[in-house]
Amino acid sequence: MGTSSRQKRQGTPVDNRPGIWVGYGKLVKLYRERLGMTQQELSDALGYSVELVASVERGRRPAKRAFTEGAEATLNAGGALAVLQDDVDLAKLPAFFQDFAQIETEAVSRFSSDPLLVPGLLQTEEYAKAVVSAHCPPLSEEVIDQRVEARLNRQKLLTRTPLVETCFVIGEQALTNTVGTADVMKNQLHHLLNQGALRNVSIQVMPADRGIHPGLDGSMVILETLEHRRVGYIESQEVGFVITNPTTVSAFGLRHGKLRMQALNIEQSARLIKRLAGEA
User: Fold this and answer.
1) How, if at all, do strands 239-243 and 230-236 pair?
2) Angle, alpha carbons 128-271-108 (nearest 5°)
3) Is residue 188 exposed (0-12), middle (13-18) or buried (19+ Cβ within 10 Å)?
4) Region of 76 on the Ramachandran plot (φ > 0 left; ψ -120 to 50 alpha; else beta)
5) Cβ–Cβ contacts within 10 Å for residue 118, how many?
6) How far apart are CA 197 and CA 211, in angstroms?
7) How far is CA 110 from CA 116, 251, 268, in A?
8) pLDDT, tens digit, 9 for 90 and up, residues 29-53
């Protein structure tokens, strides 16, 4: 029996639609038909096009929170759609990143090093879109929008309650390499200053002339979960690895500690960012 036949037998979509989108769409259709509503009537009630409603029901497009809130009230779904929203949003992220993104939602602390790009949790929408749009091979506009939206949604980690202690070590090259346009970069630098003012966010810049340091081996993340389990994460060329081996995660922690010692301190970093943004 071929792969396609096995997928059909097991109820798995044979295309690239995330299963959670397909399941969500089936629930919308079920509740709509129970009320005797047509897709047109539902679209009129929600204020969306009938094409969008049809795409959501077929699992071709993910529902946004506003859609879910309206559908919950209109279809009397009793929370069945709302409880799926976080998973619907998660599936907008690249598949290789989703496992770590799920773990990240339970973090009590998160330390990272990014030598070449501003980390996703600190990106503006314009910067994020420029980064995602540079994907090779090119992505469709719809997928670009979905990934940018998902990346911005992850940023709730910085302001949620209880607060998550975060520390970002960012290479100076990430701040001087123009991503998008000069205006995009200037806005991004201002955003870093604003986010760095949050009491649970520390931003340190690794100077370009520092020489050899552990961050040159690539980006890394070390986080601690609610159960006080430490997890590491690395990625390159759309391949991501969640690291749970205690010895390896411990080494990540030592390297990050050394990076923090070698980087500019928080105040020096803020002054450098201001200078690069043309404020000093």
Assistant:
1) antiparallel
2) 55
3) buried
4) left
5) 25
6) 28
7) 19, 15, 22
8) 999 999 999 999 999 999 999 999 9
How far apart CA 107 and CA 230 sit, in angstroms, is: 9
- Report pTM: 0.83
Angstrom distances, CA of residue 95 to CA of 43, 92, 103, 147 = 30, 8, 14, 11
CB contact at 8 A, 171 and 204: no
Cβ neighbour number for residue 6 with a 10 Å cutoff: 11
Is residue 112 within 8 Å of residue 168, measured between CB atoms?
Answer: yes
**Beta carbons of 64 and 153 less than 8 angstroms apart:** no
Residue whose entry in the numeric block shows the structure tokens 């879910």:
68
| 195-210 pLDDT, tens digit each | 999 999 999 999 999 9
Q: Tell me the three state secondary structure of residue 267.
A: helix
The DSSP output letter for 214 is G
Token pair for residue 167?
């520390």
Tokens describing residue 51: 């094409």
d(CA 237, CA 242): 15
d(Cα 88, Cα 73) in Å, to the nearest integer? 19
